[in-house]
């Protein structure tokens, strides 16, 4: 059986952090400057907005001022290559069409009505350019990650005798040292113990349909959790992970949580040891190997 530890192109500690990832998918943006037609569309939107704003201020026309704001919002959303631009484009087109209907009924001119139709028709080229540049950016990101960090780290763990545990109904695995006792419970959580009584380690897989439809949504989900914890996540190859600064536990055991994301899945790892003492081996080895303990079956 071949094992591939993903370093690929990222819920939460306990279950109370779970939530839908759909909103993260919708508000994901690209911070890089747009290229090609998308750049032209954005600059044209800024220019049109400025022109309409000039006449709106000069004539004190509130309707034109609203039009200017609409074009400005559309240009900004296109610039950041977010799919909210498609919604803004549709709403702006409908607004201009409604104005066009009024103008045609009032003075018989078709100009604004035709303009609104053109704005609506631009939905398809906008969508095509957004998808093209977003897909190109993801491919470039994967290529960079593959060249900077590959599957060798996990192979090194396996050669050292680490044992991979596969989550039920999933290709995701977690590796732990061979001398560490671990097993899955009825809920599919991997539990480990040092003494046969205490729960010193756990690994919980979080995945849903949103993650499978767009594996990058898992990164967004992790980013949101890291932001709530006031932590900057770390990128290593295609891993994204962070250590939760909030410790839980009691006098016997203190729990530290790590949130680790790979494309399409997020694994939450907890490590528990006696407060005020050094991590016992093999817990220290597990902690030092994060995030490479998480991977996928080839």
Automatic annotation (TrEMBL):
Name of this protein: MraY-like glycosyltransferase
Membrane-spanning parts: 37-57, 63-80, 87-104
Keywords: Membrane, Transmembrane, Transmembrane helix
Domain of life of the native organism: Bacteria
């Amino acid at each position: 059986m071949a094992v591939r530890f993903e370093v690929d192109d990222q819920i939460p500690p306990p279950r109370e952090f779970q939530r839908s990832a759909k909103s993260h998918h919708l508000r994901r943006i690209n911070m890089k400057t747009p290229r090609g037609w998308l750049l032209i569309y954005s600059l044209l939107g800024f220019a049109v907005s400025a022109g309409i704003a000039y006449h709106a201020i000069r004539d004190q026309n509130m309707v034109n001022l609203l039009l200017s704001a609409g074009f400005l919002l559309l240009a900004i959303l296109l610039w950041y290559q977010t799919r909210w631009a498609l919604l803004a484009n549709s709403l702006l087109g409908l607004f201009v069409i409604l104005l066009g209907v009024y103008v045609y009924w009032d003075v018989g001119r078709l100009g604004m009505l035709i303009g609104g139709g053109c704005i609506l028709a631009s939905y398809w080229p906008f969508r095509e350019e957004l998808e093209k540049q977003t897909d190109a950016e993801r491919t470039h990101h994967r290529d960079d990650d593959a060249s900077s960090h590959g599957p060798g780290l996990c192979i090194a763990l396996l050669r050292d005798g680490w044992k991979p545990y596969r989550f039920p109904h999933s290709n995701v695995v977690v590796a732990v040292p061979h001398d560490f006792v671990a097993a899955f419970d009825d809920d599919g959580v991997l539990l480990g113990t040092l003494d046969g009584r205490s729960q010193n380690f756990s690994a919980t897989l979080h995945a849903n349909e949103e993650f499978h439809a767009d594996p990058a949504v898992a990164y967004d989900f992790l980013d949101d959790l890291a932001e709530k914890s006031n932590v900057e996540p770390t990128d290593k190859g295609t891993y994204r992970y962070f250590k939760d600064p909030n410790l839980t536990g009691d006098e016997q055991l203190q729990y530290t949580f790590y949130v680790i994301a790979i494309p399409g899945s997020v694994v939450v790892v907890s490590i528990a040891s006696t407060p005020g003492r050094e991590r016992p081996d093999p817990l220290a080895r597990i902690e030092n190997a994060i995030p490479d303990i998480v991977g996928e079956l080839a």
